[in-house]
Structure formats: C-alpha cells, structure tokens
Amino acid sequence: MTDQYGPGLVGTPPLVAGLELQADRVIPRRQVIAWASWDWGSAAFNAVVTTFVFTVYLTSTKGFGGTAHVTTALFIALTISGVLVAAIAPVTGQKADGSGRRKFWLGIETAVVVACVAALYFVEPKPEFLLLGLALLAIGTLFYEIAAVNYNAMLVQVSTPKNIGRVSGLGWASGYFGGIVLLLILYFGFIHPDVGLFGVTSANGQSVRVSMLIAALWFAVFALPVLLAVPEYEAPASVQRERVNFFQGYVVLAHDIRSLWKESRHTVYFLLASAVFRDGLTGVFTFGGVLAAGTFGFSAGEVIIFAIAANVVAGLSTVLVGTLDDRIGPKPVIIAALVGLVISGSAVFILHAGGQTIFWVFGLMLCLFVGPAQSASRTFLTRIVPAGREGEVFGLYATTGRAATFLAPAAISIFTAITGQQYWGIIGIMIVLLIGLALIIPVKAPPRAVKG
Question: Rounded to two decimals, what is the model's pTM?
Fold first, then answer.
C-alpha cells in the first residue's frame, strides 16, 4: 500500500494524474473563457434561484405559510435532493468517462436545469403551490449537481499544472460576477420598480416569477460556449474499459473505491473532509438570503443589493487567491478560508441584535472566504485525479459532498425548530465548518508544479 498521491484508481500500470499530461500543452484562451462561461451562466441557478430570489420568495412571502414552516420544508427538499445526488453522481461521471461523451451529458443535464428554472414561473404565492416550487427546486438542484460533475471534470482539459489555480478561480469568479449582472438586471428591470419592464408588477409574485424566465434564458445562453468551443473529452486508451449498464456501474465503482483506499488514501481523506466543509460553504450562501430577510428584516430589494455586494466581494477575492493557489498550493488557502468563515459567522450570531449593519459587515466578510475555499477545493482534487477518471472522481466528490449535504440543512432546521428563532441556524453552519476544518488539517497536500 502507498499512502500518497500517485497511482491511479485501477489498472496496471498505475495511472498518472490527468493534469500532469497537460504540462506541455498550450490551452487556447477561447476554450478557457468558454469553459468559464458556464459558471457565469450558472449564476442563474446559484444566485437567483437557490440563494437570493426564489428561496427568499418562498420563505418571506406570507402566501406560502409561516417563515419557520417554509424554511424547514425548504431544507428538507434540499436534503432529499442531496441524497439523490449522492446516490447517482459517481456512476454518471464514470459513464461519461468511459463513453467519451462528457460534454454531451453536460448539455443534457444543463437543459433539464433550465427547464426547471423556467417552470418556477408557475409557482404562485399560495400554499397549494409550495410543493410544486420545492419539487422543481429539488429536481433542478439534482441535475445541476450532476452537470457540475462533468463541468468540474472538464477543468483538466482547459488548464495546466502551472495555471490551474487561476483558471479555477476565473470560473468561480465568473459565477459571482455573472450573478451580479443578472441580479442587477432583475432588480432594476422587474423587482424594484412598482411597474417593471413589460408592465410586470409584484402582484401575485409576478416580478419574481418573470425573473425565473429571465434566469432560465440566461443560463441557456451562457452554457452554449463550452458546448461549442471545448472539444469533447476522449478517454485515454489505458483507462478504457468494457461498458456496463447503470446498475453494474456500482460494482465497478465499489472496486475503484477499494483501489483508491489502498493506493491513494489521502485522496479519500480529502473527499471526506471536503464533503463536510463544502456543505458548510453551501449552507452559508443558501441560508444567507433567507437569514437576511427573515432575521435582519431586509426587503426583497435590499436582499438583491446585498447579493450584488456579496458577489463582488466573493468574485474579487476568488480571482486574487487563485494566483496564491498556484504559488503555495490549495490546502493553505482552504484552511485560512475556513478559519475566516468561522470567525465571521460567529460574529453574525453573537452580534445579531445589532441589526442590518452587523449583517452587512460580517456577512460580506463571510463572502470574502467562500469563493477561495470552493475554488481551491476543486484544484486540490484536479491535481491528483488519475487521467481518464475525472468524471468518476468528481462524481465521488459530489457523492461525498452530497452524502454530507444533510448536515447543514439538518443543523439549520434543528436549531431553527428547537429555538423558534431563525438566526440560530447560524450555529449549525458554524459547527459543520469547524468539523470540516478539523478533518482537512491532517490531509496531505497535493504536489505543486511551481514554487515561489
């Protein structure tokens, strides 16, 4: 057994990391930009649907029910979606690796997400529409996460060992800046004015519902470049294997996991550690808009303004720290970001009585650390994934992440239900982040291509 990053998951001879095969390549800039464009478009789902507009619409609009009840139902729906992601992500990634149709499946999965977002238009602010909204949100989340497996696996196709931190950071930052532009369009075009574009008003939730149609179009348009400019993935001959059906894929997956445990144990440790802290990171943004409206009294428009500022902070910090990732490696970036998140989140909880000013200051401080932690986590894994196994391992990344997805939503729901106070959900998120921090510290850092 070798307790290091090195041999691949399966096969003889051992496989090298896919990123190492990119060392001498020159990646066309248009391919990098096209790849990052998907992140820009995905802001329609991350920023608008799950964080700052639709979930706030559900939890703050009285027509759907009480705030505590809807908040609990929302996170139960997200928990169910997370369980489904955990169950199928690695096998879908594995099949994309073996078939050489990674980009094809990215397109199909993105199309399903776009359809779910567009269908949110039909969710009127009435109790009988709550289930429809939660179902569409859960299905959209499921397919978004499966699409992200293939998208993340493509990082190795558009980067080299010397620039992967910057490329990954550009992708994450594109998501944040895409969120800014889209939120500005929706805020000034539909949500803020008494009468918005095309005569849209807030009556019957029309301003938010029409925003969902715009968000769907946004994602569809900006997902196209990666499908057109980045070549389809070709599996290396050394890792091609007999095709099996979906259920037989679990047998192959079990074999690969056993091999991974024997040959690259710290990769397994990282998958487990990142599963926990990434769930905490997701909880920060997912709960942020809900908390701003429910606890700190932000109006729908004020939530949008805060979201814009949050995305600016997160985007700029992610771009800047991407260069640091290439210089010192991803692990120090992750640890520093988690410490910063715990300090900032604790301040929001302890000082919550200070009102909106406290949330503005420490909420934005939270955003300073979220992006770099997410981007560095992706580069950490990409540096060690064996060639031809990117989809499968990023599927495991999604599975371990989603296997832990219940942690933050469940913790938020439990603390909210027990205390009857929404802001206590912050404690749940902080606990998850602290556990993730404790787990990542002993994990061996991956090799770096350059120093200094």
Answer: 0.80
